[in-house]
Amino acid sequence: MRIEVTKENHYRRLDKFLRNRLKEIPLSVVYKLIRKGKVYVNGRRVRDPGFDLEEGDVVEIKYVNLDNLPRRAEKKGLTPIPMKLNILYENEHYLALNKPPGVAIHPGKGVHVATLIEGLLYYGREKDFEPFLVHRLDKDTSGLLIVAKNREAARILSNMFRERRVEKEYITLVKGHPENNLKIIVPLDGQEAISEIVAVKPLKNLSLLRVRIYTGRKHQIRRHLAQIGFPVIGDNTYGDRQLNREIRKKYGLKRIFLHSYRMNFIDPWFEEEREIKAPLTSDLRDVLEFLKERSDEWLEKFLS
Fold this sequence. Notes:
Order of helices and strands: EHHEEEEEHEEHEEEEHHEEHH
CATH topology of the largest domain: Pseudouridine synthase
Structural class: alpha+beta
Number of helices: 8
Helix content: 25-40%
CATH superfamily of the largest domain: Pseudouridine synthase
Radius of gyration: 21 Å
CATH class of the largest domain: Alpha Beta
Strand content: 25-35%
Largest sheet: 10 strands, mixed
Shape: globular
Number of domains: 3
């Protein structure tokens, strides 16, 4: 297979480019092709999935019969499904929505439950666009999610996230009282990872934090905060399970207290600063109101 990189099909990373071109091939197989040295760029073997592509490059897969590679199983149920979407901002290139907790981005294994991409497919069909995800949120993480409305917008926005031109801030509740303006620079899975606590509000034996992340590693905030001794409430993977049980019983919190709150970037189409905020979901607000005897004034000040 030989493909020239053009403006229409350009993705900066090699793995994303191949994932887009080989949609019927499982992702694990795509990475295996790269790792085994079957992928060439401009005649040179490339084993780095993050290799930067430029328009005009020629990508080849050599010494492999693509027809013999395994294919993805049919995505059963991946059809447009009506879904109430909490859209915070929208233009012709992208939209921003407030993702609810408990909703997965994509279908997983087992019993199928409607996913966000299916709701976006339905909305896109009604509005005449095709949705493209440019970043992710875990199932139990709520908050701000940016979705591109065409392939070119997806390429541009993906590059902005990759090049750290999008300021991302989260709200989380943790055990203990960490110091403010604390930057955490601890590699995760062998890759650079940087988080920063930019605001702290002590609440009894807990603290509400605003955390800014400069990289996007898997479970970055949860892992970083656990590593410095302030695990996220509700996190049974990296956190304090006993405390989580107590919080759940006392305040009714049934998931990880983590919310994608704010993004700030220069809109490349309108050439103006764009700040988008996603209001806290009701389940998180309820916990905070119990902790502060149901007074909202402090919270609005903290989030401003």
